[in-house]
Amino acid sequence: MNNANEPVLLHPYVRFINASENDGVDFYVFNSPISTNAACGYAGEYVKCARGLTNFRVCKNDTVLASMAFNAEPGVVHTICAVGSEDNVSLYAIDENADKTTPEYGHLRICNLFNNDKTIDIYANEKCFASDVGYLAVTRYIEMVPDLYELKIRHHNNQNILAGYGKQSIKCRKYNTLFVLPPNDNNSSPNCIFTIDSGSYSGFYL
Length: 206
Description:
Blueprint: E1 13-20, E2 25-29, E3 32-38, E4 47-48, E5 52-60, E6 63-72, E7 77-85, E8 88-95, E9 106-112, E10 120-124, E11 127-133, E12 142-144, E13 147-155, E14 161-170, E15 175-181, E16 191-196
Parallel strand pairs: 1-7, 9-15
Antiparallel strand pairs: 1-4, 2-3, 2-5, 5-6, 7-8, 9-12, 10-11, 10-13, 13-14, 15-16
């Protein structure tokens, strides 16, 4: 995630997102609670975690909904998302490491956590910049001229607008993700979260 001129992070880092249909969940690293009573659409801050094989869990009312483990390495950052329905939840880990080769641009990627059996297109100021994005897909970071962009989500096949996310500021040297999340109910538009990602930070710690 770092060029040769940048210091390397001294620890692994993770953040948690609740993209499941369960309100009020708790996220754990091993047996240590990191986020409690996280609502649908919750996005946490980056936190240090243990090096080596590390266990992550999402629970509700002391019941484990899902767990996963991977080797957490110093300098490597992940976003861990709880996805799925109320009774079928899983954890999905996304690598946050970014190639910082074009600092004059802003960078935006799309992560589709909305499982509606259809792919989506993302528009910025009425121009499509990410097309046919399926469930659990994560695009690369797309270079964008720093500016304000009005973001819209459309069905890939018929171009009907699923959601409008208003204007977001894309800044040089910043890395952002637009997470597309399930709606609050069957009759509403998908939710969205616009995050500032680890590539936006410099120094030994996030």
